[in-house]
Structures are given as C-alpha cells and as structure tokens.
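Quick note —
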Amino acid sequence: MFFKSIVDEIYNDVTIPSIFFDMYIPIADGNQIKVYLLGYKSAFFYNGMQSDELDNKTISNVIGITEEEVISAWKFWESMGVVKIHNPHEKFLVEFLDIKSQYLKTHSQDPEEDSIVETAQEASSYAYIDMYNKIEDISGRLLTPNEKIEIMNSLNEYEMSPELAVIAFEKAAEENGRIKSVNYVTAILKSWFDNSIKTVEDIEYRESERDEKFQNYKIIFKNLGFNRTPTSYEKEVIDKWFYKYEMNLDLVLKACSKSINTSNPNIKYFDKIISSWYEKGIKTVEDVELEDEKFAKDKSSKSHLSKKTIKTNIANKKTKFHNFNQSISDKYSDDELNKIVRNLNKK
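Predicted structure written out below.
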C-alpha cells in the first residue's frame, strides 16, 4: 500500500484540473464554487479513508448560507455531471467524478456518434455555458443558482437541448418583454413537450403554421372591415374553417362577401354559411356559384307559381256583384236609372 503522509492539510496543495476553471467558472456563482471547493478539499485529502467531519451544515456555517442552499449547490454540480449524490434522504454523500475523463469521453466520439441527439444532462458543458450566457443576455440579468437548476431539470425532464431553452426565452421575451420568472419559460418547454415539439425543426414548422393562421385572421378581418384583433373564440372558428373543413381562402372570402346581406355581420353569421357549405360538400367557389344559380332558379320558379295561383284564386272568387247583369244598365239613360231608383225607394 502506498500513501502520502499529511502533517497538516492547511499547508498542503489541492490539485484541481484546469478544465474545471474553463468549463464551470463561467456558469457557476460564487456560493456554488465555494461549496464545491470545500467539499473537494475534504475528499482530496481523506479520499474516504477518514473524515474531517465536514458536512453540509458545517459548509453552510463557513460560507454563511442556509443548508438548503448548500444542497441546491450540490444538485447544480450533479446536473453538470461533476458529482454524484448518494443517499440524499439519509446520509448525504457526494462522490466527485473525474471531470477530465468525462470530458475526454464526451469529445472523443466517432463523427457518426456525435450526430446523435443527446439528452440535456448528457450534452456538452460548453453548450450549457453558451446557453446560460445567451439566456442572461435575453433576460438582461444574471440567473440565480436555483433558476439555472430549474432550467437544467426541465431540459432533462423533457429531453430537450440547450438550444431549445434559448429559443423558449426568446419567445417569452417577444411575448412579454422583460422576463421576470423562469417558471414562464419552463411552462413553454412543457407545452412544447406536450405537443411533441423536441427539435428546432419542430418549432419552425409550428411557427410557419402560426404565421399562416395569423395571415388568415388578418385577411378575413380586413375583408370584413373589422379594425381589431380576433378573440380566441373567433380564432378557433376561423381555424375550424381551414383545418377541419379544409376550406381554401377564396371560398372563405366568398362567404365573407355575403356580409351585404346583414347589417351587423359577425363570425357566427359566416360560420353558419360555411358550415352549411361543408355539410353540402361544397369545396370551391364554383360549387358555390352553382348552388346560388340553383337557388335562384328555385326561387324564381316558386315566385312564378305563386303569382299564377293568386290570379287563379282571384278569378274564382265570388262577390255579391258576381251575378250582376251589365246589360241592364246599357238599356237606360242616367236620368231613367235615377228615376227607377227613386221609385224603388218610395216603395
């Protein structure tokens, strides 16, 4: 057995791989680095053979932070692949991993293996450094240790790359301006996960679809003379026309042109028209024109039949003058007729 005697560890050196400073100093905060170095010093000198009785409570007292913050720091280092936590709910043990061999293993893969999509925890540490730097630029502030862990945990849970986290922050900034809460961004990541969005290509496809929907809303509302943005209900109805009924824009605009038939047009009015077309199997503007021609002919035929019926009814209708003999008046002059009427009245 070979070993090196240590008279007083205070005066001895602690060897830390230089790669640690290149990879982790840019992304870790001061307390996280202090926690790591204190724990590493203890592990370096004693290597599990004996203990200097250093624990999380002692570290918290030395640094001046809570024990929960110390544990949070260890979780950060575990998420970075630097340490491994054992028995977190019993005797809290921290195993320091060989970051040099981990780095070499990650960067010595074959070109074909490099193309495989890694999970968030397996991704290169350099990718996370770049991710945190970009997120802080977008947010306009430094991320807290807990926020870094929260982002890391979300990526790990939803099996997403650091690149998607940056895109999520960009979307959040576009929608709400300054980002006050990381929870809002992790909710975006969850929404993407629920909708099977896991790559940049998936996001680009959804964005193109959203742009298409936005153009549909804009064109339809402009055509109707609505100078406002559509409500969520109106968006849902319009989406139904295009994506459930599979109507084309020309056909929808044809329905919108029928707004001259009402003094107060609204989406419900046009939904009834388009839903009626859908039920009749109408898919093109030509189909509508044929339907309108048929309707006009049926209306004209009914109108002609109605007028003919009215004339017949009038001709057949009898009044008190129905049996009046017009020839009697032709035999007498006006004076003679008046004389006859007066004589009748005397009687």
